[in-house]
Structure formats: C-alpha cells, structure tokens
Fold this sequence. Notes:
By secondary structure, the chain is an alpha/beta fold.
Amino acid sequence: MTSQLIDSFGRVHTNLRISVTDRCNIRCFYCMPETDVQFMDRKDLLSFEEIERFVKVAVGLGIEKIRLTGGEPLVRQQLHELIRKLSHIPGIREIGLTTNGLLLGDQAEDLFQAGLRRINISLDALTAEKFKQITRRDGFDKVLQGIEAAQQAGFDPIKINAVSIKGLTEDEIVPFGQFARKTGIEIRFIEFMPLDADNAWEREKVLFAQEIIDKLTAEIMPLVPIENQDRRAPATEFAFSDGVGRISFIASVSQPFCLSCNRFRITADGKLRNCLFSLEEIDIKSLIRDGADDAAIAESIRRSISEKKEGHEINTARFIQPSRPMYSIGG
Length: 331
C-alpha cells in the first residue's frame, strides 16, 4: 500500500516532472540566453539508472504520472531507453514528454514503441519568420515534420504549447485556433512567466488568457468550457462552440492554479524542487551517489513536499524570481 505525499495545505502530489538535460538546440528568449550558455557537465546529470531508482521510490509515495522535460529532452541520447525503463515500473499510469519537436521526426516511432503516449510540442508561432524571432534559430519546418511524425506514430493526445507574449504573439492567436480546428491537435496557450535567463520579464508583457479567449471568440466563434475537467491539471480546457477544435490555457499569472497543484520536479542534476518557482532545493543526486537507502530518499521527498508554500506569489511584491532560468529547472 502506498503512502501519500500531502503538503501542509492538503494538496496530494501524484505528478512528477523529470528534467533529463539542460541542453537545448534552440534559444527561446523567454528561457535561455542567446549565446555563451553554461551547460551542466554531463557527469553531473542523473543517469537513467538513477532516475529509474528515484521514480521507484516516488511511486511508493503515490506518484502515478511522469513528464520528461529539459532543456530539450530529445538531445539526451537514447531517451527512449529511459522511457522503456519507466514504463515497466508498476504504478506508473502515464508518461508524457514535452519537446520543441526539432528532433521528433527521427525519434517519434522509437519513443512510441518504448511506451510513450502523450506528447506536448512547444511551438509559439505558425510562421518561420516569427519562429526564428522567438527561438533565435531556424527549424520551423522540422517542427512541423515532427508533429506529423508524432501523428503517424500514433501519439494521442498531441498538444502544442504556445507561450503568449504581448506585443509579439497576438497575430498567432487566430492561426492557432484555425490549426486546432483543422488538425484536431489541442493548442495550449501559456501566459509568459518570470523564468527568463535575462530577467527581462514584466507583467505588462503577459498576454492574458482572457484576452486570447476574447480574440478567438470574436474572430472564429465562442469557446465553451469542457465538462468534467481535472481540477488538479494546470490547464483550463475549452472547445469551440461547434465542437471542432480544442483550446486550453495555462494562466499561471492571471489565474494561478497553485491551490490545486499536485506536482513537484527533479532537475537534470538531481535537485528536488516542490514548485517551479522554488527558491530552495534538496540534493537528491548526492544522496543517491553517497549510498543512501530508499528510506532516506523517500524522507527527502516528504520533507520537500511538507515545505511547499501556498503559492508562487508572482502577483505580489514578495515575489522573487528563481536564480535558475527555465531551461535549467526543467519546463
């Protein structure tokens, strides 16, 4: 019988996000510097065997869902082998992956055969020009090829994560709505969050979920909330009123979901974080490499969850941006 990971606010944690690398093959301005990025030494990354062991301990504490992130997780060689290991752990009900899609065309089939079924593809624009402006790299066509490869491999669901930034992505809203209707792929608009490497985030740059809803309603048709949504999920889901096309929103700034959060995360270098915006970490890698037993690892997980704060405080004067940018934490 598993125990439960319950914090001091009664939130039960069943969802673990695992970053497998801080390396990435693009340079989105809201996540990474354009040049001179200092990546972790590969020896400092958790091995697949160390990740597998950590997950087995976490499953004993009630973890049921895993999502692999980066950096760009597909630059980690033989990632499908890790997925195969994790998919064989009793108690894991779901494994997901978040990728920028650039390498997906070559890896989609191996990932699917290894047991991956759910995939989110980060794509903030539907034109090559805007894609390059945001990512500071080429590759738009490769992402589209990756989406097509994921469809052909059988992934379901496939979701596109689109970060929404005022003064930059307004023109992408309606094309994404039309893309959702044409392809059946869910579009998830994500409000711009203060996790950029350059510390240039300002609240005035956030394109709020309600503004996107209003624009889609005016230029396509009204959006209707999906019934029986999982209230612990970060996204609020809608469909167009004729039932064709799904749109969802992660409104971390305008409508924080902290009070229903059921997630925590471990970074590629083995640091446990109970919130994306945590200022404290617990060093799990050192525990593992120093020979700690499973009970000690489990106790560190419990301690991290017990110390979880009520919320991220982005909307208060008390907010302090984490020193780690998004690519180093894990998306």
